[in-house]
Amino acid sequence: MSLFVELQNREKEEAASKAQLDKIEKVHLSNIQRASRLTKLVDTANILKNNLVQALDSKEKNEQSIKLFSGEKDKLDKNLDTEKSVHKKRMHNFSELYRFVVKELLGEEIDSGVNWHGKSITPFLNYHGRLDSAALETVRLLAFDLTALADAYIRDDAYHPRFLMHDSPREADLSVHIYHSLFRLINRLESEAKTNPPFQYIITTTEPPPQELQTDPWLLEPVLRTTEAKHRFLGVDL
């Protein structure tokens, strides 16, 4: 075989080897790209896995929080129901106490009570229908004030300061019987106290109180007068 033929054979073998190498390189590059895609998929899968683990952990914590808050809500609901029941009972007791005060002032034949509408409180008097005369309007409000005072005296958790002052309700507006009943009711509350009466009630008068209450300790000394500031209530011109 001539040298030229041998050279041609070598060149053909080299070309075949180069073609085979190119083919192998292409396959290798394809494998690298595929591996890169698989790596990205694995990384994405790991991220999704971590996100899923965190989501499941958060879900468990949220479920525990929901159970906790649900328990707290049940407690709050029970407390609210209890407070509503106590509030309803207190409104009923206050209305009954108002009814007692009115009967003490006006007699057994007069019905009365307190209506509660949201933040509105309305005492009323009934005698074969609603009573709204000027005299009874005075009694209605006086009785409500005295009820609030007595309620604070009876209950330790009331917010009333247990101090009340009425400025000159006139006998002419009330009738002598009602006027005297006002004094006797306060005297009764005072006398039924187990210790020193835990309230203070002052009423300035233009008419004398019942005879039995026109003595010490029920009367202020000296008697108040309007002619000079020093003889007025608190010694000042209000």
Taking pLDDT < 50 over at least 5 consecutive residues as the criterion, the unreliable ranges are none
**Strand residues, percent:** 5-15%
User: Rg from C-alpha positions?
Assistant: 47 Å
Q: Shape, please?
A: rod-shaped
Count the E strands: 4
| Helix-strand pattern | HEEHEHHE
Spatial sequence of strands, sheet with the most strands: 1-2
Q: Helical proportion? A: 55-70%
What distance separates the N and C termini? Answer: 144 Å
Structural class: mainly alpha
The averaged pLDDT comes out at: 81
- Characterize the largest beta sheet: strand count, sense, and whether it forms a barrel: 2 strands, antiparallel
User: What is the number of helical segments per DSSP (H or I, 4+ residues)?
Assistant: 4
Architecture overview:
The mean pLDDT is 81. The chain is 61% helix and 10% strand. The protein is mainly alpha-helical and 238 residues long. A two-stranded antiparallel sheet has the order 1-2. A two-stranded parallel sheet has the order 3-4. It is rod-shaped and about 160 Å long. The longest helix has 104 residues, at 3-106.
Brief account:
The chain is mainly alpha-helical and 238 residues long. The chain has helices at residues 3-106, 134-154, 171-174, 176-191, and strands at 111-117, 120-126, 163-167, 200-204. The protein contains 4 helices and 4 strands; from the N terminus they run αββαβααβ.
